[in-house]
Design brief:
The complex is a heterodimer.
Chain A lengths: L4 E10 L6 H9 L7 E7 L5 H8 L3 E4 L5 H11 L6 E9 L2 E3 L3 H11 L3 E10 L6 E3 L3 E2 L5 E2 L15 E3 L8 E4 H6 L12 H11 L3 E12 L17 H16 L2 H24 L3 H16 L1 H10 L4 H9 L6 H15 L33 H7 L1 H16 L1 H4 L4 E3 L10 H9 L16 H11 L4 H10 L1 H12 L7 H12 L2 H8 L3 H22 L2 H21 L2 H17 L6 H15 L1 H9 L22 H5 L15 H10 L6 H22 L2 E2 L8 E2 L3 H28 L1 H28 L6 E4 L5 H7 L6 E7 L5 E6 L15 H16 L5 H7 L2 E7 L4 H8 L4 E7 L2 E6 L6 E4 L5 E4 L6 E5 L6 E8 L4 E5 L2 E2 L2 E4 L3 E6 L4 E7 L2 H21 L19 H7 L7 H5 L1
Parallel strand pairs in A: 1-2, 1-4, 2-3, 6-12, 17-19
Antiparallel strand pairs in A: 4-11, 5-12, 6-7, 6-11, 8-9, 10-12, 13-16, 14-15, 17-18, 19-21, 20-21, 22-23, 22-25, 24-30, 25-29, 26-27, 26-30, 28-29
Helix pairs in contact in A: 6-7, 7-8, 7-9, 7-10, 8-9, 14-19, 14-20, 14-31, 16-17, 17-18, 19-20, 19-22, 20-30, 20-31, 21-22, 21-30, 22-23, 22-30, 23-24, 23-25, 23-36, 24-25, 28-30, 28-31, 29-30, 30-31, 33-34
Chain B lengths: L1 H5 L3 H19 L13 E4 L2 E6 L6 E5 L8 E7 L5 E5 L6 E4 L6 E7 L6 E8 L6 E6 L6 E7 L5 E7 L6 E9 L2 E3 L1 H4 L2 E3 L4 E5 H4 L5 E10 L3 E7 L5 E4 L6 E9 L6 E7 L5 E9 L2 E3 L6 E4 L3 E6 L1 H4 L4 E18 L7 E5 L8 E6 L5 E9 L4 E9 L8 E5 L3 E6 L10 E7 L7 E10 L2 E8 L6 E4 L2 E3 L7
Antiparallel strand pairs in B: 1-35, 2-7, 3-6, 3-8, 4-5, 4-7, 8-9, 10-16, 11-15, 11-17, 12-13, 12-14, 12-16, 17-18, 19-25, 20-24, 20-25, 21-22, 21-23, 21-25, 25-26, 27-32, 28-31, 28-33, 29-30, 29-32, 33-34
Classes of the chains: A alpha+beta, B mainly beta.
């Protein structure tokens, strides 16, 4: 072929391209190696393209607006008769693709040199910024994503130059051998736009030819269609959807069967993942495109079957030739990673590579990005940020103070926190299930904070102890960080902000929450500054931002409420006040406030309702409520000085500086409204704290009443005080400049104020985080009991501990220690009383049927961990029906001589046969027997239990006044016991959807209303985006238009 | 007004007034007592109780429950291992007496009104032969651990009676703390008792050489009712009462007056040697005996001290104190040509009252209470419950602080076949310890038996309970 004559037929396809066409035509007709023939196809342009073409070409083929690129080329090829005795080349040009003068020459040079080359493509550069690389060949990954191998906006510095093979080249400027083109059947009609190039090159490669990129040849390409700079008529869909659909189609049509199936799975998963990401980024239109594309491909299997048939059976044989030009497998993951990162960074899911499909308009910079300042290297930026420095300092203080909690033999726990066992999965199980196989069994709902904890645990490697460690032990540095960031809008004075944040983080509320293991207060304490800043946005920000802030506030209020429901009660009157004050002034504030306040009610509905039925429980929080953790006679001065009492309290005067500074703020004449508002909040918080501290509440699980802990209310009060003090801090500089008495008093205030956080930190470090919380908790369930609980009998264990005041605390466990959250799941009142009475009787040694009652609850072991008081040991020893297994200084174990199994068959005479059972459901073989037999399941009777015998439903009964039983016929068979949980499932799904909706509504999204709204270039609102954003991120779309 | 509002100090004044008001509210609502009122333990009648008489063959068995306000109840007496009852007692307040024939333990199981304070005893009497003397045993509840202290196999024939009345097997072990240290021995190890089984172990097989022995009968699983009988070669037989578990302070009460040896046994089951202080409490006060102030007992062994000369025939209690836990008991030897012995042992105070089922005050027999109030003055009410007829009016007995008082029990009407005695501390009384001595003046010599007053299982205190995961943390 070396000596063969080469003929080049240029085909220009235009569609509303009058903006670019003149330059394109100049490029075409100014080639150093002129084309031999030139044909133009106009796909129904309405902008004068047709006229331009008519001027330049002798003949213009006119097609309808809906015709695609491939159809146009096919039409042109049909019109140009083949030339005998020559190698004919087709040079395909878009109307927005201007070739450099020597482009064709360079391409042909290589084409002549390499007889196997059937397709050659130029280096494509950007139309406007002519140094920016657009494409140098293109490939796909196994998910169908187009991959150019270029960085986002990569400049051409010759780094990719050279002739190279590629899977495909763009149709813009593509030089393709006519015979090969016709041999493979031209473009696929199913691909009017997008991916036609890849599909064609794939088939050409499969036919044994080569596809080359010749970087010496250059063309400038505007990518008008894919960048939505013009309407697309060839396909009715959004370009993104068409692009995705075609991507999947090309893969489906060309891959051999095995790879096809794998790609199908990958495509489905990838599409769903991207849909989710787009939803999270609040780009529902993109999400819709993504999912619609998938549906379009999956929905027409016939199309794919035909396409595959057309491509013949050689797919598998030639696949290795094609596959090596695929993008490496990591690319897809990297891309998704970039999307996630982009989304987290608030810039939206920008896809850096493969721009030859729809480009998503990225949202501008969002708030909260001030961690990083503009200049300097990353490390320097991080370590000079005051927020980071403050957090590190607080972290150091925390680590020193919590030295006793950081290492230990066992699990963290104590005080209000039950030792943290299990994994995130256990927490999910607990939250999702409608029946809890704990204690004597309960179908009450798990408290919603378990779900929050499960989410955090899942993120933290699935380890709840890590989640608890971070949230509880780390609450001081976290609260310092949130407080510092929250003050950004109020104050621009960094030292004052640092003071506020440090004072807040080191409040006695925090140290007390840590010492007593109050996870609920710790979480609320961290969230409170966020509430403040979001509430400010709801009231003061521009309407759309305010609405978003309202959703976010509602969501976070729900989280806080789940941990400490008092938060919601406190927020209601404050929100009401704000609505009264600002509702008339700013439009939409009332609605936004209503959103913020009612979202928790919607998200936590059924659980909040149980609290409403039992209002004192609003004063409780996540974890155990025990008398030893509160100061029942909390002094008035402690309440006024923000000290909530209980373990972990510094001296009461430590917070004096904060109060003093806030009082000083009252003397200023400016910003009196802010100071007054802060003080109002503070006094309100203290009033609520007094009421809380003086109220006695019974724990959810029953037991002695104890005073509630006023930590949350005092944290509110502290927030108010710090607002008042912070306002004063703005004037400090002025006052000091003023000199004289003012200067003196200002200095005094500063000194006293700064003493507060320093003293608090010092006191905390000095005393350490001493408290009931420790890290020495070991399992209270003996190995014997744990092992037995896993067997079919499902034996339960009663754990007894004599508290200091003579009270006996007990809990029934099933082979493992209680998980976080489980103690907060109430047991039916009547059952609890029955067990209470039996345990009390057992501990008193009065004899009688107490042991038998415990046995009827399937209790088999009685365990007293730790050193067993002599009287208790003697009492248990002398109990008929109870035999000692062991007694040592680390604890005693007794065993019931006649325990009842979880599942048994009880005949009319009362004789029982044990059946093996699972944790919830059971399946076992029942022998045949006499009449009047009962299948007894020792769980609280309820309508959700179902039992079948060989598939026939059994009639439910109630045994011993509480247990679920079923009447058994005389015949034996396989009996199956299951539990339905329709309502729990229904609520959890509803709640999940509600949370999703609120999250989506709350998340920062794209700034323009609909990033995919089609707008003609001249109408594109270039200014709006530019003005609103701060211009730090490159504005690709705006700049281009 | 306007000037006030515009004044620099107006806000400050308002805040200060509001703060003062809050202070007032907080002060006014502050509860008076720091401790949150914890529900006190509830006094509740015992619902069910069982007792085992170790070997009542030929002896008189007594069963009594103090009169109460309870509803109905039954105390059923059975020979161990047989379902049919020997006797059923349904009237609280009236003792029941019967003769047992079979050489097998007898179990007494009571519920309802009969359970609250059930007391049973077996009293044997022989006027001649090797077993001459009064030998009484309080029928005890099965337990996981029982303590006894008395003469060892070298100075007496000591038999340990074990019975398992539960429906699960029991595995027991006998540990002897002798002068030579703790001994378990093959005979004392791994004593398996099937449900309803009983057996007798001769202590000689466990620790043959011991002069003095403290015994710990403990179970690895299940419970056993344990009893120990000692037969002295020189004459004298009796059952050893169960002693209080080891404690740094033990009060051996009910030492009868009169002549004869008084031998104090002290055992130290722990791992440290003990220097034991011994004091006696008599009608004259509390004092240490000259020359017998202290007793040295090596770890894991037992020792004894003769007290007769110091006591000079006075009824007394002995207070034994040590830095390490000790178990103490006392042997009292009667006078006459043929001797009889009685044993007492350290016991807890009778805070919840105490019942002795079998007392007699006729045909040469006499019953006496020896009451001691070691710390604060004691005031007790003594009620006699005759086998027939109504109970006479109770009498009140005052015991001065730090002294012992002997009370002779007069024969109540209808009590000639026997009567029970109920001793209840009155409100405001200090802790009272005591013992009951039953004596018979026979021609050949005094026969006696002693029973330290054991707290009656009439009431128990039901503690407040809370279903709380706090049970798994500390």
């Amino acid at each position: 072929m070396h000596n063969a004559r080469h003929i080049v037929t240029a085909v220009v396809v235009a569609h509303d391209g009058a903006r670019w066409l003149p330059e394109t035509l100049d490029g075409l007709f100014g080639q150093t190696r002129p084309v031999d023939r030139a044909l133009a196809v106009d796909n129904g342009s309405r902008d004068g393209s047709a006229a331009l073409l008519a001027e330049a070409f002798p003949r213009v083929i006119t097609l309808s607006r809906s015709a695609g690129f491939g159809e146009a080329v096919a039409e042109a090829v049909r019109a140009a008769h083949p030339v005998e005795g020559a190698v004919e080349w087709l040079w395909l040009l878009h109307d927005d693709c201007a070739p450099a003068a020597d482009a064709l020459e360079c391409l042909l040079e290589i084409a002549e040199a390499d007889p196997r080359a059937a397709v050659l493509g130029p280096k494509l550069l950007d139309w406007l910024d002519r140094r920016v690389l657009v494409e140098i060949g293109v490939t796909v990954d196994k998910g169908g994503r187009r991959e150019t191998g270029l960085e986002y906006r990569e400049y051409d510095q010759g780094q990719h130059d050279g002739v190279r093979e590629s899977l495909a080249v763009s149709t813009a400027g593509m030089l393709v051998r006519r015979d090969v083109f016709e041999q493979v059947g031209g473009f696929d009609d199913e691909l009017p736009l997008f991916r036609d190039d890849i599909d064609l090159c794939w088939r050409i490669r499969a036919a044994g030819h080569r596809v080359l990129v010749v970087t010496d040849a250059v063309a400038w390409h505007a990518e008008a269609a894919s960048r939505r700079r013009r309407r697309i008529a060839a396909t009715g869909d959004h370009p993104r959807r068409a692009d995705r659909r075609n991507a999947l189609y090309v893969l489906a049509a060309n891959l051999p069967t095995g790879a096809f199936l794998a790609a199908l799975v990958r495509g489905i998963v990838g599409s769903l993942l991207r849909t989710l990401l787009f939803l999270l980024a609040k780009q529902p239109a993109n999400a819709l495109d993504e999912i619609a594309a998938l549906a379009a491909v999956l929905g027409s299997p016939g199309r794919i079957r035909r396409a595959r048939k057309r491509r013949g059976k050689a797919k598998r044989k030639t696949y290795p030739q094609v596959r090596k030009y695929f993008a490496p497998p990591g690319q897809g993951l990297r891309r998704i990673g970039e999307m996630v990162r982009g989304w987290l960074a608030g810039t939206g899911p920008v896809e850096s590579a493969g721009r030859h499909h729809a480009v998503v308009a990225e949202p501008g910079e969002e708030e909260g990005e001030e961690l990083l300042s503009d200049s300097g290297g990353l490390l320097q930026r991080i370590f000079t940020s005051p927020a980071v420095l403050l957090t590190l300092a607080l972290l150091a203080v925390t680590l020193v103070a919590e030295r006793s909690l950081l290492a230990g033999e066992g699990r963290i726990g104590g005080g209000a926190l039950p030792p943290v066992y299990g994994g995130a999965r256990d927490l999910w199980d607990q939250y999702l299930s409608g029946f809890h196989p704990i204690g004597v069994g309960t179908s009450a709902d798990a408290p919603p904070y378990v779900a929050v904890l499960a989410v955090v645990s899942t993120l933290l490697l699935g380890k709840p102890w890590l989640a608890v460690t971070v949230l509880l032990l780390g609450c001081v540095p976290l609260a310092g960080l949130t407080a510092y960031l929250a003050t950004r809008r109020v104050l621009d004075d960094v030292p004052a902000r640092l003071w506020i944040a440090a004072s807040y983080a080191l409040l006695p509320v925090a140290t007390g929450a840590i010492a007593a293991g109050r996870l609920g207060t710790a979480v609320v304490f961290v969230l409170l500054p966020v509430y403040a800043v979001l509430a400010a946005a709801v009231i003061g920000a521009e309407r759309r931002v305010a609405r978003r802030a309202a959703w976010a506030l509602g969501l976070l209020l729900a989280v806080g409420t789940a941990f400490a429901p008092l938060v919601w009660l406190l927020a209601l009157p404050l929100g009401g006040l704000a609505a009264l004050a600002f509702g008339g002034v700013r439009r939409g504030v009332g609605v936004s406030l209503a959103i913020a306040l009612l979202t928790p009610a919607a998200l936590l509905g059924p659980w909040l309702y149980t609290l409403v039925l039992n209002p004192p429980r609003f004063l409780l929080e996540a974890g155990l409520h025990r008398p030893g953790l509160v100061d029942a006679r909390l002094a008035p001065e402690a309440l006024l000085l923000l000290s909530p009492g209980g373990p972990g309290m510094p001296p009461v005067w430590v917070t004096g500086g904060v109060v003093f500074a806030a009082l000083a703020g009252l003397l200023l004449r400016r910003h009196r409204l802010f100071v007054a508002a802060g003080w109002t909040l503070a006094l309100f918080g203290v009033l609520v704290a007094i009421l809380v501290a003086r109220t006695r509440v019974a724990p959810v699980s029953g037991g002695p009443e104890a005073h509630a802990w006023p930590g949350v209310a005092l944290a509110f009060a502290a927030t108010g005080l710090l607002v008042a003090a912070g306002v004063a801090a703005r004037r400090i500089g002025e006052l000091r400049a003023a000199g004289g008495v003012r200067r003196l008093s200002a200095t005094l205030v500063v000194l006293v104020a700064c003493a507060a956080p320093l003293l608090a930190a010092g006191a905390w470090i000095w005393k350490g985080a001493q408290g009931p919380l420790d890290r020495d908790n070991v399992s209270a369930v003996p190995a014997l009991a744990a092992a037995t609980a896993g067997e079919g009998e499902r034996a339960r264990t009663l754990i007894l501990r004599v508290a200091g005041d003579g009270r006996v605390d007990y809990t029934i466990v099933r082979g493992r220690d209680p998980l976080v959250g489980e103690p907060d799941i109430p047991v039916a009142e009547d059952l609890r009383k029955r067990v209470d009475a039996a345990v009390a009787g057992l501990a008193s040694g009065r004899g009688g049927d107490d042991v038998a009652v415990l046995g009827s609850f399937a209790v088999r072991f009685v365990v007293a961990p730790g050193k067993v008081p002599e009287t208790l040991a003697r009492t248990l020893d002398s109990q008929p029906g109870l035999a000692r297994v062991s007694l040592s200084p680390i604890g005693g174990i007794w065993q019931l001589t006649r325990p009842a199994p979880r599942l048994s068959v009880v005949d009319a005479k009362g004789a029982a046969v044990t059946l093996p059972a699972g944790r919830v459901n059971a399946s076992a073989t029942v022998p045949s027997g006499g009449g009047g037999r009962l299948l007894v399941l020792r769980e609280p009777a309820g309508p959700d239990w179902r039992a079948t015998l060989d598939g026939v439903a059994l009639e439910p009964r109630v045994a011993e006044g509480w247990a679920q039983a079923f009447a058994l016929p005389e015949d034996g068979g396989v009996v199956t016991v299951t539990r339905a949980q329709f309502w729990r499932d229904a609520w959890v799904v509803t709640q999940g959807l509600l949370v999703l909706v609120v999250v989506v509504l709350a998340l920062p999204g794209a700034k323009n209303d609909d990033p995919l709204a089609e707008s003609p270039p001249e109408e594109r609102p270039t200014g709006r985006r530019g003005q609103r954003r701060r211009g730090r991120t490159p504005d690709t779309v705006g700049a281009a238009s | 007004m306007r000037t006030f509002v515009e004044s620099r100090f107006s806000l400050l004044a308002m805040v200060l007034v509001a703060s003062l008001a809050l202070y007032g509210v907080a002060l006014g609502s502050r509860p008076d007592s720091a401790a949150p009122p914890v529900a006190p333990p509830v006094k509740a009648a015992v619902h069910a109780v069982s007792a085992v008489c170790p070997d009542p063959a030929g002896a008189r068995v007594s069963v009594v429950t103090p009169p109460g306000r309870g509803e109905r109840g039954r105390a059923v007496t059975r020979v161990l291992g047989r379902p049919e009852p020997v006797a059923t007692v349904e009237r609280p307040g009236t003792p029941w007496y019967g003769e047992a024939r079979e050489r097998a333990p007898l179990s007494v199981s009571a519920d309802g009104a009969m359970a609250a304070g059930l007391e049973a005893a077996q009293t044997g009497r022989a006027v001649s032969g090797r077993l001459r003397g009064l030998s009484a045993a309080r029928c005890v509840e099965p337990a996981a651990t029982s303590w006894f202290v008395g003469p060892g196999p070298a100075s007496a024939e000591v038999l340990v009676y074990l019975a398992n009345i539960d429906d699960t097997r029991a595995s027991a072990e006998i540990v002897a703390y002798t002068g030579e240290g703790p001994i378990i021995g093959d005979a004392g190890r791994g004593l398996l008792l099937a449900p309803g089984e009983h057996r007798v172990v001769n202590l000689k097989d466990v620790a043959p050489m011991a002069q003095v022995a403290a015994l710990e009968v403990r179970t690895h699983e299940g419970r056993v009712a344990a009893a120990v009988r000692a037969v002295l070669p020189g004459g004298g037989v009796d059952w050893l009462p169960a002693a209080a578990p080891p404690a740094p302070r033990a009060i051996v009460s009910g030492v009868p007056g009169g002549a004869g040896r008084r031998q104090l046994f002290v055992a130290v089951p722990g791992e440290a040697d003990a220097l034991v202080d011994v004091k006696v409490v008599t009608a004259d006060g509390t004092y240490a005996l000259k020359g017998r102030e202290q007793l040295e007992v090596p770890a894991g062994s037992a020792g004894y001290l003769e007290l007769a000369t110091g006591l000079a025939g006075q009824p007394a209690s002995v207070i034994v104190t040590s830095e390490v836990p000790v178990v103490a008991g006392l042997m009292s030897v009667g006078t006459g040509t043929r001797q009889d012995v009685g044993f007492t042992a350290s016991s807890p105070p009778i805070d919840s009252g105490s019942v002795v089922a079998d007392n007699r005050s006729s045909r040469g027999q006499s019953s006496r209470l020896v009451l001691t109030a070691p710390a604060a003055p004691g005031r007790v009410r003594v009620t006699l419950l005759p086998a027939r007829g109504p109970a006479p009016a109770p009498s009140q007995v005052e015991v001065p602080a730090g002294r012992t008082r002997e009370v002779r029990l007069a024969l109540p009407p209808g009590g000639d076949t026997g009567y029970a005695v109920l001793v209840e501390p009155l409100p405001g009384s200090g802790p009272v310890y005591g013992g009951r001595t039953l004596e018979e003046r026979a021609r050949t010599g005094l026969m006696l038996t002693i029973q330290p007053l054991a707290p009656a299982r009439t009431w128990t205190y039901v503690p407040p309970v809370a279903d709380s995961a706090a049970a798994v943390t500390d």
